[in-house]
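Example 3.2
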Amino acid sequence: MSFKRFLKNLLLTAIFCTIVITGLYFVSNQKQKQMKETATSEIAVAENTTEKIKETETETETETETETETEELIDPVDEYLENIKFTNEDIYKMRSSYEKTAEGEDDIFYIYDESPYDILGEACALVDTDDMEIIYAKNGLRQMAPASTTKLLTAMTVLEFLDADEMINAGAEQDYVASDASRCGVERGGTYSVYDLLNGMLICSGNDAAYTLAYYAGKRAYEREEMSDIHDFYENTYDKVYDESLDDVNTPASDNESAKKYIDEFVKYMNKNAQQMGCIDVNFETPDGYDCDGQLVSALDMARIGVMAKRNDLISDICSTISYSSNLLPNKCITTNELMNEDGPYYNPYVDGLKTGSTGAAGKCFVASATKNECNLVSVVLNSGPDGRWIDTYNLVNLGFMYGEVYDKADELVK
């Protein structure tokens, strides 16, 4: 090999190596560029994901704050009473809806053998307050005038806003009491405790007490600060203690217009409370239940009201009282409940309440409570006769206890 040829080959080899090295360098740069782009892209995605997470967390925090604010905005009056639902209520309503009775016939419902008694009243309901079960009903969904059984709901609504120990003065609201209404002796200008008037309203069915209580409770409801506290339904405020500063705001009604304004407000809350309890076929227009167009209730819904009233210790205690005297009331209050009258022909030792009612449109009505051997009942009779409401209630209570005994025996056999 000549020297020139050797140099030529060496030169070619050098050129070839240069080309290879250049190519490898180019490929390496491209890979590094791609890796940087990928890394940058991944960082961007990660940053974007982080931003989304932060946004989601912010939205969640905002929603949580909103939910918290919403919870704080719940008015305590919207949670004053429980919803009363009977376990077989839907079955009863469905059956009553599809099994239409012929004109002039009664809608009868019972959960076991047919009742051995004929109920004289136009409508009735009997419920077990322990198992919350409808035992018997006659025309239980029919809307009817409630008379003074209304005062059970009136008492519950009064205790929502007023302390039982507060002192209040009767005023112009007394002009709304019907001339033939039952009274407990409230006089315009007189001073009474809320507790006195509750006794006068529930024991001897004083319409005069109902209107004064409704005026002051309606005034308190109307003038209360938004979201202000109310009394708990299960709180017994009869403890001889109350905020005496309330005496300055408990001013009597000076004229019929202001009296009506606050009484109407009170009735609004009566209907609101009825709805809270689950009442459907009801509408109240007055605090005393006196006959009024559009004032209607069903026996089933009145049973709901009776169950709830019985759960309030103060109302239950007053309704189980035979007589009440106060230095502030001119007359002694005597119960209108003949089943608690030991000297009467209809006395039943197991009956311990609740409220009677009587008007031209409503007839003779009675919401009763009874207890025997841990069996607790509430019965309702609407539009019966002068003696019929006592006979009907006596028979309904016996029917309930018979059912309770059968149920207990069956339960023992199962065990």
